[in-house]
Amino acid sequence: MRRLPLVLTAAALTAALTYAGTAGRTPAPSPAAADGPRTAGVERRGSLDTAIAKDQQHLQTLPGDAAVWARLGAEYVEQARLTADSSYYPKAEQALRRSTSLQPDGNVEALTGLGALTNARHEFALARRYAEQAIAAAPAHWPAYAVLVDARTQLGDDAGATDAVQQLLDLRPGTASFTRAAYDLEQHGRTDDARTALTRALQDAFAPSDRAFCCYQLAELDLARGRADDALAGYRQTLDIDPSYTPALAGTARAEAAIGRTDDAITHYTQATAKLPLPQYLLELGELQEAVGHPEKATEQYRLLAAEQHLAAANGVVDDLSLGQYQADHGAAPEAVRLLRAEWDRRQNVLVADALAWALHRTGANSEALTYADKALAHGWNNPLFLYHRGEIHKALGHTNQARTDLTRALTLNPAFDPLRVPLAHRSLAGLQ
């Protein structure tokens, strides 16, 4: 029997969030850019550098300390997340493997660290296995449930992810659990409840980095609902809390693009990509440059994106989703289909479904594309880009009414959901009148 997504009440939020009822659901992705809400209480880069140096020094004196090897491995994973430098992943694996060799049985911290590492490398089935092993060894070890939520979510195991969120909430109602609960709710179209959960997460957050993360997610909700001015204020509040929080800088650019301040948006995107060259940011900057008529500058961003993905692959990161999304619109659509079919074989979540639908559309395979577009929207996520994609697929199939409905809904939800695609949506809609 499958349970409904989170049912939020004021009383429930006081202690935790609860589930009730029965229903089936479809997969949900992890949040953009970080592949899942991060665990509460992590240190920012300066103190993390200090912690790494301290643990390295400790291990020179006591190289047989399995617990410190596990901690060092987890610190390397976090350093990679903060810097977008995937070269930390081999270091993390080496440290975590050393820990398990020293303590093969019941090494919960190392198993959890390996789960976080394999999640970061997009080896989600392996991450799920590590998390489940950690939980079997220590059922009250809440960080393992956070890893499990993220892995199951990415794999499209919707019921399993929901169960893991509930277990995490039961064990540790706080920032890590409430942010994951909020994400679950958002993907099911329950943005008001998601905001309630994020507000609770913010109330529980103490460290500036955690407060910044929660403020950023609240701003992301505003932007997704077409409230660009509110989102811009939220991103600025995030940067006031933690000026080093680069996702808020990229968010600022996203909001500025939505309200027509493209020069400011390009400036802030450029600053964000210089600090944290994530494929998402490079692609967004490239598409904004393309939208304002700077194709040469757009091409430069796409070149940087390819270089970053090559570096990530060399360090064990599989990112066929991002590469497939790029190829569908800016490269070779058949190659996008190949990449995204392979990604779908690994994980059946809605981000992959939408990307594969669009790639198939770009090759003219619209009937099959519609199947995946329907999967992407099956559980109620009000995602304007997904709706735009399905609207264009319906149009290509001659489904005039369905195309008009999806395109209108996309533009109603967020009239500025994408600088490159909004004009195309208006053009398609006008052609359907």
UniProtKB/TrEMBL annotation:
Per the record, the domain of life is Bacteria
Q: Which UniProt keywords apply?
A: Signal, TPR repeat
Return the Gene3D superfamilies for the record. Answer: Tetratricopeptide repeat domain
One Pfam family, please name it: TPR_19
Which InterPro entries does UniProt cross-reference here?
Answer: TPR-like_helical_dom_sf (IPR011990), TPR_rpt (IPR019734)
What SMART domains has UniProt attached to this entry?
A: TPR
Signal peptide interval: 1-20
Annotated stretches, region: Disordered:
22-42
Spans of TPR repeats, please give.
384-417
| PANTHER family given in the database record | BLL7664 PROTEIN (PTHR12558:SF33), CELL DIVISION CYCLE 16,23,27 (PTHR12558)
Q: What is this protein called?
A: Tetratricopeptide repeat protein
Q: Which organism is it from?
A: Kitasatospora sp. CMC57
